[in-house]
Design goal:
Layout (H helix, E strand, L loop, with lengths): L3 H8 L9 H5 L15 E2 L9 E2 L1 H23 L10 H16 L20 E7 L4 E7 H4 L6
Antiparallel strand pairs: 1-2, 3-4
Helix pairs in contact: 3-4
Bound molecules: zinc ion (3 copies).
Length: 151
């Protein structure tokens, strides 16, 4: 898979200013902060910022990326999900994403509009928008996209 490390850097690795010295140097895992010995995954980076990850965290974050890709890809091509779905596949993809998101011990999913935490009972959609210089990924309540549709 080309660009996997780049995409992890873009969407999963915290920005450099949120990291400690050991994380910046790649001495500890950039996610769980456990000391790295053999088998650490190199995530690329620039001079002074060489994030590395332990294999379990790496696998978990790759799973998050993949689950988001599938879910987002589906909602982009689905006629049902964006208008207040989800359709059965959209619902399954969202459930799968929520599971890997939780397994990765990430901050709870928050709606970019309202901006409350998104509970499993609420419909939501993945959204990608332009950040300062890079794309950002997030989620939005389906109801917040079009409040008029809320019955
Ligand atoms: Zn780790
Ligand atoms: Zn759908
Ligand atoms: Zn919302």
């Amino acid at each position: 898979m080309t660009g996997l490390a780049d995409r992890l850097m873009l969407f999963e690795v915290p920005t450099a200013r949120m990291l400690g010295v050991e994380q910046l140097a790649g001495a500890v895992c950039v996610w769980c902060r456990s000391p790295l010995t053999g088998g650490a995954m190199d995530l690329g980076g620039l001079t002074g910022f060489r994030p590395r990850a332990c294999p379990p965290c790496f696998q978990t974050r790759v799973a998050v990326l993949g689950a988001y890709d599938e879910w987002y890809g589906h909602t982009m091509s689905c006629a049902v999900c964006p208008g207040g779905g989800p359709c059965p596949s959209g619902g399954a993809l969202r459930l799968h994403y929520a599971q890997v998101h939780q397994a990765a011990d990430k901050e709870p999913m928050r709606c970019i509009y309202c901006p409350q935490q998104i509970t499993s009972a609420e419909d939501c959609l993945p959204v990608v928008w332009d950040g300062v210089s890079v794309p950002r990924r997030g989620w939005v309540h389906t109801a917040c996209l079009d409040p008029g549709k809320q019955s």
